[in-house]
Specification:
By secondary structure, this protein is of the alpha+beta class. The protein contains 4 helices and 6 strands. The chain has a domain of 74 residues: Alpha-Beta Plaits (2-Layer Sandwich), CATH 3.30.70.1150.
Length: 124
Amino acid sequence: MVTRITAEFENPETAELALKKIRESVSGVYSTNYVYNRESDKAERLRSGNIYTVLPTTAGAVNFTNYLTMVMDFPASDDIIPEPSRSRKTNVFIVCDGNGTEQISSILNSSGGNNIYIPPRSVV
């Protein structure tokens, strides 16, 4: 019987390591996949950067032909990046036969997986 197992991870790196361990050690795994928020990659790049603000000013109150600009820079913080963009929650999907579900569940649990869902087996 083909079974689809799902789980959640905090980031895609740990999810990828868990899926690699499952593919290498469990027989009967047909496919593995993970999905995460791609916008979080941009947020990670912004977190280590600087934010530049350009302030235009004029020299003289009567003659507005001479413009000056001033640039202020400061490091980006988590306050600038909204929370949904920072979230790196990753959903993992594993399609396998019904024989290795306990082993897959233990690997997901030991790798940091949360909300592991294995559909119950139907008894015929």
